[in-house]
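Z., the sequence and structure:
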Amino acid sequence: MAAAPPTPNSDDTLNDWLTLHHAPGIGAVTIQRLLERYTSPAAALHAAAHREPDLDPEALRFLRQPDRERIERDLAWAEQPGNHIITCRDPAYPALLLQIADPPPLLYVLGNVEVLGQLQLGMVGSRNPSASGHRTATEFARHLALAGLTITSGLALGIDAASHRGALDAGKPTIAVMGTGLDRVYPSRHRELAHAIAEHGALVSELPTGTAPKPENFPRRNRIISGLSLGILVVEAAIRSGSLITARCAGEQGREVFAIPGSIHNPLARGCHALIRQGAKLVETAQDVIDELGALAGACTPPELLAGDQARVPATELSTDYVQLLDSIGYDPTSVDALVETSGLTPAEVSSMLLQLEMSGYVASSAGGMYNRLK
């Protein structure tokens, strides 16, 4: 009688999965093809040892004589508390991700594996957002997290980090999909943020431990952000932006694409405007996202809409001069010289009042001495 196959979570099976995963020249699509042909990693390795599968010679050499040190390093990582390696045949593997054309055969997870099965919304955008873009991402993430959506992003500078922090501020889990191995954090300044995400949600990567932040890793990472999510929300993006790659992946995967419009004078709005012209849903409030996702996102509604739709602080709280200056400031970046001209105040008065308005949260400053209104 033939021996029973190993259980899906046995060390031997994970060894086989990792051997395939580490083989040079073998990616997600090739592993998927091998699994369809040979039914299991063990059978694929047996075929590589005794037959000549249609594989690159270098890959065949690795499969016959694997680099045990690399595989053992992953296994040792997986033994540490909170660390997991799940395969595409594991019940914990997220069902939505399994539906894409090239699902990762393995996911390295640091944190709570169960959050991968929650309804997710991907949020992406510029690494160098405007002050209002950063604030918008934080508030959207906070409200959407309170509405029951798990916010998924890429831990990058700018909009990604603001989105993660918005979800954490709401006391909700968030998921960061990494472009490195999970034994390192990139960018390094987000080490504390990554720790918070792992504690309350999960860090995820398809890349083995020890993988450095190479440029080619990040476009591949983007398909996982969109693949995990019901839809992608782009907050700010230049016309040539990695965020648009994520949006394109989402469209190809049949996911919803949402974009927040901005000023025609803001170059970081042009990517969002291009997406809207191509059919992305224009979004002004968190409720717009909930309404569009409908039953897929659950019937819950945010307890309040975004700050742009909430009652603004009454202008009567400000003196007449401050109201006059605030009325001269638009939501587009405005220079001090322009404010002096439109408000009729002196340069010294404008500078002093802008400082007070910024400290009170009415305006935000940006590069070049520009100011824009926040509320």
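The chain has three domains: 1-75, 113-306, 315-373. The chain has a mean pLDDT of 87.

Let me know what you think.
H.
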